[in-house]
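seq as requested:
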Amino acid sequence: MIEARMTDLNYNEILMYLGHRGQEITPEIDTQIQKCIAEVRRYAAPRLVYRCLPVDKGSITGFPLEGDDIRQLLQNCDEAVLFAATLGADIEQTLMRHEVTDMADALILDACASVAVENVCDCFEEDVREMLSRENRYLTSRFSPGYGDLPLETQMQMCEMLNTSRRIGLTVTENYILLPRKSVTAVMGISDEPQKLRSRSCEDCGMFLNCMYRKKGIVCHE
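struct tokens:
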């Protein structure tokens, strides 16, 4: 059983979420960022749930997913991992409190929390890859609802399949938004053959739908 874990947050990724483009980071701003990093680490309670299902001809048995992109991802796979990860309700409440009392802190805290939930997903993916490597098995990149032509509505299906509400306190609104907001659902394929991994891009990021950086028309990657 793989447990949720979170490593040190990448400072540069936080700056990217904040729209930093090489401007000077003053000691005051750095102190504010470090304070928000510490707050995320204090209130984040990473949790995840996952399930392995058989795949046949690019489709997950008993859990059909719409779209050509997900079928292409799974075309050489015989299993798939469905998972959901969240930072928990305390982070959600902390973000909401700052949004009322201090918007500057709220923006930085939001960026730190976005990096944190991606960190949890990265750690889980790393742990699955390591486990599979001992069996000479291989993992695809992860793919989330809202990427490509995989409908956002799939969030609801995945959370029901994983029973996230009961197991990790993760629910989905009628508009298919995850609550707590700092949460991610995704699919990864498992194969006996090495898989070509997707290059890092906005579409490959779990925060694609609510990334402040992307909304400004810029990207956090080269």
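Residues 122 and 203 are 15 Å apart (CA to CA).
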